[in-house]
Design brief:
With about 850 residues, the protein is an alpha+beta fold. It is built from 28 helices and 29 strands. Helix 11 runs parallel beside helix 18 and helix 26 (about 735-750) packs antiparallel against helix 28. The strands form seven sheets. It has a six-stranded parallel sheet. Helix content is about 45%, strand content about 20%. A hairpin with a 4-residue loop joins strand 17 (about 520-525) and strand 18 (about 530). The longest helix has about 40 residues, at about 285-325.
C-alpha cells in the first residue's frame, strides 16, 4: 500500500527506528563471521594469503567463501590457496575461466531511498549464493522462494567483523570461526562509502559487501526476515479504519471523536510495534494514519457543515417567526414595499417631500426607487456612489443629518435631511426628505421621532427582503437566494437574529410593564421565572417577598388560608383547569383583587382542559386582577339600592288600616326589601368575593339547553317541576355552571336509551336552602360504592365514577352538599343542596 511517497518514507523511518533498538533477551550466537581484507592485501605475497587461509582453516570453519575480488580476480587465478576457496561474485564481475567449480552468484542489493532494504536473487537456486550457504548451516529455516528478500537488520545476533591482519597476527581466537560460515571480502578504503542500512547511525561509513551478505544469511538463518503486509490485507484494514472513524464521528461529539481518533492511532502504533518485534511484520503504519486522519478531517468537516446548515436553518426559522410576529403580513407580501413605507412615514412623521434610494446588490452604488411629494427627476444630487458625500457623512453619523447643499428641488421654508436605512449591520438604502423649517425648531423631540421612524423603516426592509427570499425559495428551490449568492456569514445571520430577538424581548417587557394586570410565571416546581412591573409594585405595597416564595406560598400569603391555596393548586396541577379566588387584603377595604391560577402547557400555552396528561404541564401562571375601580362603581350602585330600599321601607311603615290581603302583600314587600338590603350590604356579594347571587333556575335551564343535542341522541325524556319563586343561590357562577354541566353529562352517559330523567326543585326558606333532586333510569352502581364516592374515596372506582367524587368535593367548597342513592340496574338518585341568598352564607372560591 503505497499512496504517497511521504508516507512510504515515514514507514521506512519507523521500521529503521525499531531495527536500531537493542535485541530482546540474551543475544544468540551468530552463524557467520566476516573477515575484511584491505586493498593492499590483495596484491601482496602469497605468504600473507597462505597465513590467512591457514589460520582460518585451522579453526575448522563450516565454509570459507571469498566475496568478490578486485582487479578481475587476478590474484585468485595466481594463488593456489585462493583458488581453493569458494567464490561468490556480484553480477558483472569477471572470474578465471579455468576455475572449478564455478563461482556462486551474489544477489543484488535492494536499495530504497538510499538505504538497503534487502536483496534480490539474480541466479537460479543451484548457483545462488544465499540458498547454497543456508543449506550448509544447521538451521530450521530455508532461503525464501521470493523475488525479494526483505532484511530488517533487527535480528538478535550481530555479525562479528574482523580484519585479515588481526587473523594473520593470531589475535583472533579460533573459537570465533569454529563451525561458522566465514565470508572474506574487501574492506572499505579511506573515504569510500559502503552500503547504508537501517543499522547505520548518522555519519556511519556503511557496510562492506561481505557484511551485507553476512547479515542477509544471518537474518534467514534466524527466521527474522521482515514480512510486509499483503496489499489486499493493508487495504482491507485501511477500509476498516475509515469505516470505524466515520461511525465514531457520527455518534460522538467533536471532542469525543478526537479522543477516539487518538485512541485508534495509539492502538495502531502499539500493533505496529508489537508486530515488528514479535513477528517481524512490517505494517504500513503511516499509510493507515493517513487514511484515518484524512477521513477524520473530512468527517469532522462534513459534520460541522451539516451542523452549520442546521444552525443556519434554525436561525432563519427563528428569524422568520420573529419577523412574522413583529411585521404585518401585508408589508411582507407587498410587491411595492417602498410605497408601503412611504405611506407609513407620511402618517407617522409629517414630511413634505421624500425620496428613497435603494442599494444595488454587490455594488457600492444606489439608485432612485420612489418619491412622494415630488418626482424622481427633482433629485438634484447626481452622485450615486454611497462612498461619497453626502451619503458618506450620513453613514459616519449613523443617523439623520441635515444637508448643506440641496438634494431635492424644494421651495423655501423647508429643510432637507438624509438618513441611511440599515438594520443589523446591513445597508438597504437612503431616505432623503424635507420638513418645514418651523418644525425643526423643536429639534430634540423632532429628531427622536425621525430617528425612530428611520430604524423602523430599516427593519421593515430587512423583513420584507427575507420574506421575499423565502417565498422565492419555496416556489423554486433551485433558485439561489441572495444570502447564498453573497455567502452571507453565519455570524451576520446570528447578529440579525439576536437583534430581532432582543427587540422582541424589549417590546414584550415594555408591554408587560404597561399592563394593569399583574402576573407571576412559575415553573412546574414553583420557582419564579418572571414577574411584571404591576405585580412587583403590589408586592412592595403589601410587603410580599415574591422572589423568595414558591407559587403555593404566594397563594397562602394572598388568600390568608393554606387550605384554600392548596385547593387552587390541586385544581390546577391535578385537573389542569383554571382556578380563581378573591384576595381578602386585610386592612385594605378600598381595594378589590382577584387571583387566577392558570396551568401552562407545552401544546397550547395557557390551557383550560382537563384532558391533558400531567407531563404536559410545564408551569403555573398567577394572574392578579385589580377590581378597585370597578368596585368603587359597584359601591355607588350598592349605595343607591340601599337608599332605595330604605325609602320603600319608610313608605310601607306609614301604611295602616289595610285588609288581610293587603297586609299579606305588605309583609311580602317588607321581606323582599329586607332581603334586598341584606344582599346589598353583605360583604359576600361584593366584587372581591367568589360568591354572588346566582339565578339557579336560569343556570339549570341553560345547562340542559347546552346538552340538548346529547339528550336527543340518546332519546331521553326530561321532566321538570315548576320553578320556585326564590331561586337565587349564593355561589360562584362559573364554578356552579361547570359542576352542573359535568353532573348532568355523567347522568346522561349512565342512563338507558329512551329512558326518563326526572328533575325536582324546591326551596326551604326556614333553612335558607335550595334543593335539587335528580332521578335517572340507568346502569347505576352499588349504593355502598356511591356513598364511598360521595365521601371522597375514589381509589377503587372507574374514571367515570371518580369524576362524581371530585364533583362532591368541589360542591363542598361552595357550601353545597351532594347526596344520593343508587343500585345496579336502578340508575341514580342525587340530591343537591345549595345556600339561598336569604342566608347570606359564607363560601370559598372553587
Amino acid at each position: 500500500m503505497r499512496t504517497l511517497e511521504l508516507s512510504d518514507g515515514l514507514n521506512q523511518w519507523w521500521q529503521d527506528g525499531i531495527a536500531r533498538l537493542p535485541g530482546r533477551g540474551p543475544p544468540s550466537e551468530s552463524s557467520t563471521v566476516v573477515v575484511t581484507v584491505p586493498p593492499a592485501f590483495w596484491n601482496n605475497s602469497d605468504s600473507n594469503w597462505d597465513g590467512l587461509i591457514g589460520q582460518l582453516e585451522a579453526a575448522t570453519p563450516n565454509k570459507l567463501v571469498l566475496i568478490n575480488c578486485p582487479a578481475g580476480c587476478d590474484n585468485v587465478a595466481k594463488s593456489p590457496r585462493l583458488r581453493s576457496l569458494a567464490l561468490a561474485l556480484s553480477e558483472g564481475v569477471d572470474y578465471p575461466a579455468t576455475r572449478d567449480p564455478e563461482p556462486l552468484a551474489l544477489p543484488k542489493a535492494l536499495v530504497v531511498g538510499g538505504i538497503v532494504r534487502g536483496v534480490q536473487p539474480s541466479a537460479p537456486s543451484s548457483q545462488a549464493f544465499g540458498p547454497s550457504m543456508i543449506a550448509r548451516l544447521d538451521t530450521a529455516h530455508s532461503w525464501p522462494d521470493t523475488s525479494i528478500v526483505h532484511v530488517g537488520f533487527g535480528m538478535q545476533a550481530w555479525v562479528p567483523v574482523v580484519t585479515a591482519e588481526a587473523v594473520v597476527a593470531g589475535r583472533i581466537p579460533d573459537a570465533l570461526f569454529n563451525g561458522k560460515l566465514v565470508l572474506i571480502g574487501e574492506a572499505l578504503g579511506p573515504g569510500e562509502a559502503g552500503y547504508t542500512t537501517p543499522l547505520d547511525v548518522a555519519g556511519g561509513k556503511g557496510m562492506t559487501l561481505a557484511e551485507l551478505h553476512a547479515y542477509t544469511i544471518e537474518a534467514v538463518a534466524q527466521g527474522q526476515l521482515t514480512k510486509p503486509v499483503p496489499e489486499l490485507g493493508a487495504y482491507t484494514i485501511a477500509l476498516l479504519i475509515v469505516a470505524i472513524t466515520i461511525v465514531l464521528h457520527w455518534l460522538l461529539s467533536l471532542s469525543g471523536a478526537l479522543l477516539a481518533d487518538l485512541l485508534i492511532s495509539t492502538v495502531l502504533l502499539t500493533a505496529a510495534w508489537l508486530s515488528r518485534l514479535q513477528f517481524q511484520a512490517s505494517l504500513p503504519l503511516f499509510d493507515w494514519y493517513l487514511a484515518q486522519w484524512l477521513t477524520a478531517i473530512l468527517a469532522a468537516s462534513a459534520i460541522l457543515r451539516a451542523d452549520e446548515r442546521a444552525l443556519r436553518y434554525v436561525m432563519l426559522d427563528v428569524l422568520n417567526r420573529v419577523r412574522e410576529r413583529l411585521t404585518p403580513a401585508n408589508v411582507l407580501a407587498s410587491n411595492d414595499p417602498w410605497g408601503v413605507i412611504m405611506r407609513f412615514t407620511q402618517e407617522v412623521f409629517d414630511v413634505k417631500r421624500q425620496a428613497y434610494l435603494e442599494c444595488l446588490p454587490s455594488q457600492q452604488r444606489i439608485r432612485e426607487i420612489a418619491a412622494q411629494g415630488c418626482s424622481l427627476d427633482e433629485i438634484l444630487e447626481l452622485r450615486r456612489d454611497y462612498g461619497r458625500s453626502p451619503y458618506k457623512e450620513a453613514l459616519q453619523a449613523g443617523g439623520i443629518i441635515a444637508l448643506q447643499r440641496p438634494f431635492l428641488n424644494i421651495p423655501e421654508g423647508e429643510t432637507q435631511f438624509i438618513a441611511p436605512l440599515d438594520f443589523a449591520g446591513r445597508l438597504y438604502g437612503f431616505w432623503a426628505f424635507s420638513v418645514e423649517t418651523q418644525k425643526v425648531a423643536s429639534f430634540d423631540s423632532w429628531q427622536r421621532i425621525a430617528e425612530e421612524v428611520r430604524v423602523q423603516v430599516g427593519e421593515l426592509l430587512f423583513h420584507q427582503q427575507q420574506w421575499q427570499e423565502q417565498r422565492q425559495a419555496r416556489v423554486n428551490p433551485n433558485i439561489t437566494t441572495d444570502a447564498a449568492r453573497t455567502h452571507r456569514s453565519l455570524t451576520q445571520n446570528l447578529i440579525q437574529g439576536v437583534t430581532m430577538l432582543e427587540k422582541r424581548l424589549t417590546l414584550m417587557e415594555q408591554a408587560n410593564a404597561s399592563l394593569s394586570t399583574g402576573y407571576l410565571l412559575y415553573d412546574l416546581f414553583g420557582n419564579l421565572i418572571q414577574a411584571n412591573a404591576p405585580v412587583e409594585a403590589f408586592a412592595r405595597d403589601v410587603n410580599l417577598k415574591i422572589y423568595q416564595l414558591s407559587a403555593y406560598e404566594v397563594l397562602c400569603e394572598l388568600l390568608e388560608d393554606p387550605a384554600a391555596a392548596r385547593g387552587l393548586m390541586d385544581q390546577v396541577l391535578m385537573q389542569q383547569t383554571t382556578a380563581s379566588s378573591p384576595v381578602p387584603l386585610s386592612g385594605k377595604k378600598d381595594r378589590g383583587l382577584y387571583v387566577y391560577v392558570h396551568p401552562i402547557t407545552e401544546s397550547s400555552g395557557v390551557a383550560d382542559s382537563a384532558s391533558l396528561a400531567p407531563f404536559d404541564l410545564v408551569g403555573v401562571l398567577l394572574e392578579l386582577i385589580d377590581f378597585s375601580d370597578a368596585w368603587e362603581i359597584f359601591a355607588h350602585r350598592q349605595n343607591f339600592i340601599a337608599r332605595t330600599a330604605e325609602s320603600i321601607e319608610s313608605t310601607t311603615q306609614r301604611l295602616a288600616n289595610l285588609d288581610s290581603t293587603q297586609q299579606s302583600a305588605l309583609e311580602q314587600l317588607k321581606h323582599d326589601v329586607d332581603l334586598l338590603q341584606r344582599v346589598a350590604n353583605s360583604p359576600q356579594t361584593r366584587l372581591v368575593s367568589a360568591n354572588v347571587p346566582v339565578d339557579f333556575c336560569s343556570m339549570l335551564n341553560a345547562t340542559l339547553d347546552n346538552l340538548s343535542s346529547l339528550i336527543a341522541d340518546r332519546h331521553l325524556r326530561i321532566e321538570r317541576s315548576p320553578s320556585v319563586r326564590n331561586c337565587f343561590v349564593l355561589t360562584g357562577p362559573s364554578s356552579l355552571s361547570d359542576i352542573l354541566k359535568e353532573l348532568f353529562f355523567l347522568l346522561i352517559e349512565n342512563a338507558y336509551d329512551h329512558s326518563l330523567i326526572e328533575i325536582s326543585l324546591w326551596s326551604d326558606i326556614n333553612r335558607d336552602r335550595l334543593f335539587l333532586h335528580i332521578e335517572s333510569q340507568g346502569v347505576g352502581l352499588p349504593n355502598d360504592a356511591l356513598q364511598d364516592l360521595l365521601a371522597g374515596n375514589t381509589e377503587e372506582q372507574g374514571e367515570q365514577w371518580k369524576q362524581l367524587g371530585k364533583l362532591a368535593k368541589r360542591l363542598g367548597r361552595i357550601q353545597a352538599t351532594l347526596s344520593g342513592y343508587s343500585d345496579v340496574g336502578e340508575g341514580l338518585q342525587l340530591d343537591l343542596s345549595l345556600p339561598l341568598v336569604d342566608g347570606v352564607a359564607t363560601g370559598k372560591a372553587d
